[in-house]
Amino acid sequence: MNRSANDPVPLELRAVTRRFKTEAGVLEVLTGAELTLVAGEIVALVAPSGTGKSTLLHLAGLLEKPDAGEVFFAGQAAGTLGDDARTAIRRTGIGFVYQFHHLLPEFSAIENIALPQMANGVAKAAADTRARALLADFGLAGREDHRPGKLSGGEQQRVAIARALANRPRVLLADEPTGNLDVVTSDRVFAELLEAVRGQGMAALIATHNPDLARRMDRVVTLRDGKVVSG
Ligand SMILES: Nc1ncnc2c1ncn2[C@@H]1O[C@H](COP(=O)(O)OP(=O)(O)OP(=O)(O)O)[C@@H](O)[C@H]1O
């Protein structure tokens, strides 16, 4: 995808704070986190369990709102938007990949990738064509009509990644995208993910516990005392 130098910054978190009330008191998870993702940049988020990686991804993905600070998507302050506008950004501008694939079990691989496009107004024939091409990119030609239950773990995760890329989002957010796979499959699927993200010129933030995978990204950040710092 061609993005020009004048395009707005895909994703920016400014002074983002998030706290949770727990029985033990208030838990300050993010305390003024700052992060900028430029177009074409793939950032690894590597931090110990419980430090707030998923929380940060949920805020970046407009799934939750910060208690203070602001998330900017393509230069637009998300806090100023209503729920419909936030949902529209999530549907068209952001691709999500989780540790578990969350594919729709009753639908085939091709339908799982075509449906989010059709929800965005793409005609079925065009959505199917793109889904087919993505499946081929991920080595799944011939598996189009298989339901997720008939696919291996690696194949399921490839379909989930293809689904996240289907609408050509500006930003990809991933939480341990290959954390559920064996080492060899994880390595292969991860390489395919990076290639696809680079090919589309997207910005990506990918949480992983795996330092080998993190090294293959453009830079590594971590969370310390609720703030994003270089990893
Ligand atoms: N809705 C919530 N209510 C209360 N506490 C929460 C909530 N969501 C997250 N937390 C707490 O916030 C902290 C950060 O959670 P988060 O899931 O972001 O961590 P993480 O770094 O992604 O961990 P992991 O690597 O284990 O997935 C944890 O202590 C968690 O228990």
Automatic annotation (TrEMBL):
Residues 11-229 form the ABC transporter domain. GO terms for molecular function: ATP binding. It comes from the Bacteria. Pfam families: ABC_tran. InterPro entries: AAA+_ATPase (IPR003593), ABC_transporter-like_ATP-bd (IPR003439), ABC_transporter-like_CS (IPR017871), ABC_transpr_LolD-like (IPR015854), MacB-like_ATP-bd (IPR017911). CDD domains: ABC_MJ0796_LolCDE_FtsE. Keywords: ATP-binding, Nucleotide-binding, Transport. Belongs to the ABC transporter superfamily. This is ABC transporter ATP-binding protein.
